[in-house]
Specification:
Elements: E1 9-16, H1 20-27, H2 37-52, E2 57-62, E3 77-80, E4 84-85, E5 100-101, H3 104-116, E6 122-124, H4 131-140, E7 151-157, H5 167-182, E8 189-195, H6 212-224, H7 226-230, H8 234-241, H9 249-258, E9 262-270, E10 278-285
Helix pairs in contact: 1-4, 3-5, 5-9
Amino acid sequence: MQEDVILAELIWGLGTSHVPSIGAAMDNHKTEEPYWKPLFDGYAPAREWMAQHKPDVAIIVYNDHANAMDLGMTPMFTIGTAAKYNVADEGWGSRKVPPVIGHPELSEHLLVNLVDDGFDMTVCQELDVDHGLTVPLSVYCPDPGTAWPCAVVPILVNVLQYPQPTAARCLALGEALGKAIRSYPEDIKVAVFGTGGMSHQLAGARAGLINEKFDRMFLEAIETDPAALTALTREDYIREAGSEGIELIMWLVMRGAIGSDIHRVHEAYHVPASNTATALALFETVPSNGAKNA
């Protein structure tokens, strides 16, 4: 009699902005100030739900901001395989948050499967992680104490240097990632974060750009029609969402991973936060039997 194989379960996906000032607001106890309170009030329902549905591992898709890598070497897709990731000093000291603990075994499994599926991943066996990763972790868990509540596998996407990967390639990476997670032979719960955005531009003639109409369209389509977002070129994203708004392609990695059977738990949208439109979209995966995750 063949025994059932125990495999990992992908339980939810989170799209969230990773604006560094969000982390600073938490670190400096400003979340109840009038400027910040609407943003953090919008996070509250998602945080409450996520606290009841804790993953063992979070896969966080983000971009380095020239802290671990400079523009002299910009891989298209990168995965971390370390047991520990220190918090980067971004010029004003490291955030006072715990170091990030990795999951080398899952990282190795994902790496092999992604390469076998045609994604030539760059591998980082050492990596300092910046606000692109630590701010989303703080959005999930605002009070980690001495340790974050889950291990982390970092996946980095080039959104800084032309040519960035296409939106379609990011969705396909997510689909391969989801398949790889679900084939991992261990009884663990996994969440996937897609980070960055929404519309913003930090420099140039359009500095301060916010395009709420585009942002609202993206928030709807990321749930109901992610394929429509892959029809947008990198130039479309930059024109509509700003030079940094192209970070939204990283949400498509998360969306591809969680699959088609999902339920939206919560959504929030707020401007401004450091001249950036900020958003959160939380999706629960629905098991094949149709029941919600316990």
